[in-house]
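Moderator note: this is an archived Q&A kept for reference. The question asked for a predicted structure of one protein chain; the sequence and the answer are reproduced below.
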Amino acid sequence: MSRGGGIERLSLNQATVRQWTVEELVAGCVDAGVPAVGLWREPVAQCGLDRASKLVRDAGLIVTSLCRGGFFTASDSAERRRALDDNRRAIEEAAVLGAPVLVLVSGGLPDGGRDVDGARERVVEALAELAPHAAEHGIGLALEPLHPMFCSDRCVIVTLGQALEIAERFPAGQVGVMVDTYQVWWDPEVYAHIARAGERIAGFQVADWVTPLPRGALVGRGMLGAGCIELRRLRDAVDAAGFRGMVEVEIFNDRLWTMPGRALLDLVVARYREHLAEG
């Protein structure tokens, strides 16, 4: 496997090539010289946790993150307990895979609920239970804010500042933040928050924002360079804050998922070189 050509920090998140199995993801990245992958729990389970771990390890790939945990905001105590149990399993899966970070999406409002503050406080309570378990397994928890349009149903944490206010209640090695360009680019205070985050930046994910949004914003993320986000400026900002990890390309897009996986990977590599590679 020949690595280089400006992609030394490129990580391919599995969601970008959802049409590929874990086996195909590993083989494709090895063939293209992509050094790292971000994994998702569902395809890992389909492959088998131990087999997936062996595949990436034998291929010499770095695992940058495991997606995802979270969804802590249910008002029903039994539902919250199930969520915590599932997140403990996710932490243990990340450890087996060699992923240093478990990405957390907080969850939205419970059905029929309107108490946003209460939902956010339940996120803090969940982290207080999970952070020690994660520390025991050597896993960092990365709280990811999502764009405000997802607040009601997916994530009540909508700015990097909010995520930091929560993360800062815990040791930096236990709880950090995920900076995702698609989710935070619009925030007029995002650069100040990135600088403040410093060592708490647990990961950096990239996709672009296209206008108008395709039907279904969840799966309407744009290919790098196709939209209006200042991708390189954001990458420079996280680097200036001290982040030295991989740049993880995570694009949810129905149209891209219809492409042959290798053609999509080649497009990702080309656009990464153009819009994000160093030098």
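Archived answer notes: The first helix runs from residue 22 to 32.
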